[in-house]
Specification:
Structural class: alpha+beta
Oligomer: single chain
Radius of gyration: 24 Å
Distance between the termini: 71 Å
Amino acid sequence: MNLPIVKNTAVVNAPEYVRHHGVKDWVARMARLARPDRIVWCDGSQEEYERLCQEMVASGMMKRLNPKLRPNSYLALSDPSDVARVEERTFICSERQDDAGPTNNWIAPAEMRGTLGRLFDGCMRGRTMYVVPFSMGPMGSPIAHIGVELSDSPYVVVSMKIMTRMGRAVFDVLGENGNFVPCMHSVGMPLAAGEKSVRWPCNAEKWIVHFPETREIWSYGSGYGGNALLGKKCLALRIASVMARDQGWLAEHMLIVGITNPQGQKNYVAAAFPSACGKTNLAMLVPPKGFEGWKVETVGEDIAWIKPHEDGKFYAINPEAGYFGVAPGTNIHSNPNCMKSIERDAIFTNVAETPEGDVWWEGMTDTPPTRLTDWTGQAWTPGCGRNAAHPNSRFTVAATRCPSLDPAWDDPNGLPISAFLFGGRRSDTAPLVVEAFNWEDGVYKAATMGSETTAAIVGQVGVVRRDPFAMIAFCGYHMGDYFKHWLAVGKKVKRPPHIFQVNWFRKDATGKFVWPGFGENMRVLSWIVGRCQGQAHAIETPLGWMPEFDDLHWQGLQFDVDKYASVTDIDRAAWGRELKLHDELFAKLKGRLPQPLALERQLLEARLAP
């Protein structure tokens, strides 16, 4: 629905089905600030999606892929300066600096509002402001929440159509006075009269700003991923984590899977991993040879909202409706369900294009094509010294395309969680799998997670950094208070989930991965499910409960006792060094570190003593 601004106000242009005066007033204020040429109230229809995609093809922002090879799919190539989350430009502007904590960037709210006022003044001149209503989670779910994003990027609109429940029906749920999170976004490239836009508009100056007390999100300068799709990391994690703290639930960087054994018993597991550490692979896992009769079904691959239920359990939803996954390394071996999901109806960003009009990225096939057009638009051949696809290139596709989608994935009541898994990319120290002794020990394990950095963020790759709960970049308040919240939430239910720590990435002396990973992770998952059901054996170790070699199911895999020992051994000297790194993290939290975690630190050191 294309609606020109009348008398520089959006109020008179709102469709009749928009009955929420707060939304209309906010859109009017933002229009007066940004001064777009026109406003489009998005209805979320397929016709709207196809029209916007065609407009982007006409402008050069996207390219339609070969419909015979990749039906109804598109390729977008971003500006080389706009390829990943910009954590150093991401701010939590709480009223008090200490409430943001040492792991977040902070600027005083009044100062930041002044900066944003300057940046957004006229920032949409010559462009269209799209009003994008969206629900994070099933419409009307007691676990879901609503947002409205204003954006001058059609790429954002079509991506939000895939990634959220977006469109007219959201206003029916919102009614006249429902709560919503206002999300203001601009690529930051206004156009003078008659000026033509560039293929991928963005600005060298980038800001991603959150106001936790007022539940607001402002994003400027980037048109890419989590910087621009504000329902994702910004709302679903940074703002939602504050809402969860205040309301007694959890907003987590977690996948959700349902695991059914041959006897028909089903358990749901939520797992936290930093980006590009195998979350999507695990969420869409295909059981390997030897696991006939087992079934793994996908509920979500990135984010979980988890609320306590009166039956004494936690129930979780996937607040998203699509997948924004890392392409490199994804192939028919590592993730066959993902490859089937993106056979059609997908948007690819910053991957390479084949001469036939299909897509390719590193790791997609054993042998690369003889020639490609790389993600920067240059001719590419094997051995030329450049990546064909950007290391953080992505695919965007609806969850309903996933062949392993859980039949209850969209249940508004959520699904009961039996276990939490936490794991990072560690080449040493952390064992293959360990179960926490209790809730406090599990929170300690999650709080002290470390992972080697990847291309999903801007900065140095391969450096080990502490990433508590895989939330270091996404917690919207003080991390010490976040730990305290986790400790408290565990007491809200009579049957809290078991907590496990896993590590698929141990390496041998030559630098090669020892554990085969991918579908073989089912061998660990089946033991975890067995522990939740009170059936699987384990031995006590200084780190927690661990399986012996014979406790895992090995049919179909050649993996001997010595290899198993190399991924489960506990190097006490290495753990002594690891504990010092835990201390460095805890020292940053100063007076807000919960006392139970300090006690768990002492207990762990005592258990590791010779």
